[in-house]
Amino acid sequence: MRITNTLTGKKEEFVPIQPGVVRMYVCGPTVYDLIHVGNARPAVVFDVFRRYLEYRGYRVIMVQNFTDIDDKIINKANQLGVDYKTVADTFIAEYWRDAHALGIRPANFHPRTTDFVDDIVEIIERLVEKGVAYQTETGVYFDVRKFEKYGELSKKKIEDLIAGARVEVDETKKFPLDFSLWKKAKPGEPCWKSPWGEGRPGWHIECTVMSVKILGESFDIHAGGEDLVFPHHENEKAQAEALTGKVFARYWMHNGMVRFLGDKMSKSTGNIFTVREAVKRYGRDGLRYMILSKHYRSPMDFSEELLQDYSRAVKRVWEILGRYEKSGDIGIPKRNAVYEEYVNRFVEALDDDFNTPVAVSLIFELARNLSKAMDDNDREDALLYYHLIRREFGPVLGLFDLNEEKKEVSSEELLKLLIEVRDVLRKEKRYDLSDRIRDHLREIGIILKDTPSGTEYTVE
Ligand SMILES: Nc1ncnc2c1ncn2[C@@H]1O[C@H](COP(=O)(O)OP(=O)(O)OP(=O)(O)O)[C@@H](O)[C@H]1O
Ligand SMILES: [Zn+2]
User: Fold this and answer.
1) Which of 64, 102, 226, 408 could form a disulfide with 107 if both were Cys (CB 3.0 to 4.6 A apart)?
2) How many C-beta atoms lie closer than 10 Å to residue 384's C-beta?
3) Per-residue pLDDT, 3
């Protein structure tokens, strides 16, 4: 299997440190708002990448953090008049709702920064002892000029980095690119004790510490959006390698940016489309299909019309699958030459730098074949195509997955049925029963709203 490694800029054969096991760290969200379609891209891409590694027989140990303390979280807390923890807890819960709706499997570990403050302090102390970090009045900083390989990941010279990038401004630093490991608290800010006074960890050190503590000093894959290459990943790498003297992550994988209205989709710019809205309007398979039909490293332009097109294409496949399920056999087909050929094409595509566009196009090809086989009343072939879509490839791509998708469809259908029954009850003035339905739904977070054009529902 070959993947493009940002560290070398080349497509390389993937060989894990421990045979058969892949240790992988993905930078997770800073939790101060709902996730948007841009954030959904790494979530879906690396979820499917992990499923594929498992499909190929690896055991995967995956870590995805939550950044639960940061300036943006503190600002949001101040805006809302609550403490930072309420903001973090709220948006972690919201993250889970969206991730679940999007069919993202939880990683094996979801560490939160604030649970690792003791480890972070200990590692910063070791960096200070090694002479690669120093203290000023405002905090503790990493001394970039002490780490020779700085710039290796982002492939930039130090001079260019200073000129081109946004660097943390602080009068007390020795060098513009030095970045904070520990920020001393201003009055009223959340803080933890440390040898340098009360304060909080910088953003980059948390990922270094959580990855090294959970996965070890060297691990296989470090992933995230390409906006993180500099400074975040360059800094994570510098801290870890200055600390241990070993290679930190051996392969770095970065997804391209989702653009919306001409810019990177971003909470800070405000040009966002939330995952919640996208899934509600166009279904989770529509969004997953849109994301997977672009190669993960290419930029991706988002528009609602495009998402709608993908959602329609997905519906057509569902219709074909539904037609088959009404009458067809859903047993296990024979693994014949055609079966093998499809598996080979699937593996060949995904082994080649995780080419999901080719893999999803196979699903659509199979759906067309299935439709034709039904027209021709060719039962054996139909079962084969059906099986390949729903049991062989579906679970890897998280699309048309037999076990998962059924539940989603049926809960929506059931809700529609309940609303219909309630309408009948109201027309017959049996308000005791109709109110009971409304109240009970409200208790489980489904709010009904009666409008002149019918009853609508929202999920809280
Ligand atoms: N537009 C985008 N396209 C693709 N990936 C993105 C996009 N925006 C963020 N990501 C990725 O989503 C993950 C979580 O991002 P994070 O919560 O740190 O902030 P963010 O959404 O980029 O914040 P902001 O929107 O304020 O820039 C990271 O891996 C990041 O690279
Ligand atoms: Zn990170």
Assistant:
1) 64
2) 23
3) 98
For residue 268, the ligand closest to its alpha carbon is 1
- What is the pTM (predicted TM-score) of this model? 0.87
Question: Is the distance from the beta carbon of residue 257 to the nearest atom of ligand 1 less than 6 Å?
Answer: yes
* 405 has a pLDDT exceeding 60: no
Q: Tell whether 296 is covered by a domain.
A: no
Query: Which amino acid type is present at position 180?
Result: S
Residues 233 and 349 in one domain: no
Answer for the pair 388, 345: CB distance below 8 angstroms, yes or no: no
Tell me the ipTM for this assembly: 0.97
- What residues pair up with 180 in beta bridges, in sequence order? 141
φ, ψ (nearest 5 deg) of residue 205: -65, -30
Is the C-beta atom of 426 inside 6 A of ligand 1? no
- Same domain membership, residue 415 and residue 385: no
pLDDT for 60 equals 97
317 in the same domain as 245: no
Domain of residue 447: give its range.
Answer: 409-457
> Residue 262 domain-assigned?
no
* Burial class of residue 360 in the structure, from the number of CB atoms within 10 Å of its CB (0-12 exposed, 13-18 middle, 19+ buried): buried
Output the residue whose Cα is nearest ligand 1's atom 12: 39
Kindly report the CATH number assigned to the domain that includes residue 246: 3.40.50.620
- 42 and 137, same domain (yes or no): yes
